[in-house]
Specification:
The protein is mainly α and 193 residues long. It contains four helices and four strands. β2 (171-175) and β3 form a beta hairpin. α2 crosses α4 and α3 packs across α4 (154-167).
C-alpha cells in the first residue's frame, strides 16, 4: 500500500497497512521457523555422524593396539625361536683350512690360511665392523646398531647375516656363561670378493 502525495493516512489505510505488515511478519516467521527446523535436523544428523565416526575411530584405535601387541609378541617369539635354534646347534670348531702336502715334511714359513672371500655389501660392511676389533665378541644388536642404526627389524636381519658368515667359517659363534646370549668373533682372515 502507498499514500497519495499530500494526503494524510486514514484510519482504514493504517489498519490495512498494519494487517499487511502482520502478514509479512507471519510469513517471515514461518520461513525462519522452517529454516530453523531444517538447520536443527542438519545439526542432529551431523551429531549422529560425528558420534558414529568417533565410535568407529575408537574401534580402529583398539584394533590397531591389538594388532601392534600381536605383532610385537610374534616378532619376540620368532627371535626366541631363532635364538633357541641357534643355541641347540653344536658350536662349529674353527676351521683353519691349512692343507699339509705330506705329514713328514715340516710346515714352511710360507704356509698360511687362505682368506675367506666375502661377497655382498652388507656382509662386507659387517665383516669390517667385526674386524675393527677382532678380539671382541660382538652381539647381533651391536653390529645392527652400526649397520642400520635403529631401523625396524635391523637386529633380526643382522643376526641372519652373522649366521650366514658363520656358516662360511668367517666368524665363530660363542655364548655367554649362562648360554642365553650368542656373540660373534672373527674366525679367519677374509677379503672382499
Amino acid at each position: 500500500m502507498s499514500l497519495i502525495d499530500g494526503r494524510s493516512p486514514s484510519a482504514d489505510w493504517v489498519a490495512k497497512d498494519m494487517e499487511a505488515m502482520l502478514r509479512e511478519c507471519d510469513a517471515l516467521i514461518l520461513s525462519k521457523d522452517e529454516l530453523t527446523r531444517r538447520l536443527q535436523e542438519s545439526i542432529e544428523t551431523l551429531q549422529r555422524e560425528m558420534a558414529k565416526a568417533s565410535e568407529e575411530r575408537e574401534q580402529a584405535v583398539l584394533q590397531r593396539q591389538k594388532a601392534r601387541e600381536w605383532l610385537d609378541e610374534f616378532q619376540a617369539a620368532v627371535q626366541k625361536g631363532a635364538a633357541l635354534r641357534a643355541s641347540s646347534q653344536p658350536q662349529k670348531p674353527v676351521q683353519l683350512r691349512l692343507v699339509q702336502p705330506a705329514p713328514t715334511p715340516p710346515a714352511t714359513p710360507s704356509a698360511f690360511v687362505a682368506p675367506v672371500r666375502i661377497e655382498g655389501a652388507r656382509s662386507i660392511a659387517a665383516m669390517r665392523i667385526i674386524t675393527s676389533d677382532p678380539r671382541r665378541a660382538w652381539s647381533a644388536s651391536e653390529v645392527a646398531q652400526l649397520l642400520e642404526s635403529d631401523a625396524r627389524g635391523a637386529v633380526r636381519r643382522t643376526r641372519c647375516l652373522l649366521e650366514h658368515l658363520q656358516r662360511l667359517s668367517a666368524l665363530r659363534k660363542v655364548y655367554s656363561p649362562d648360554g642365553k646370549r650368542a656373540y660373534y668373533r672373527l674366525a679367519v682372515s677374509w677379503e672382499a670378493a
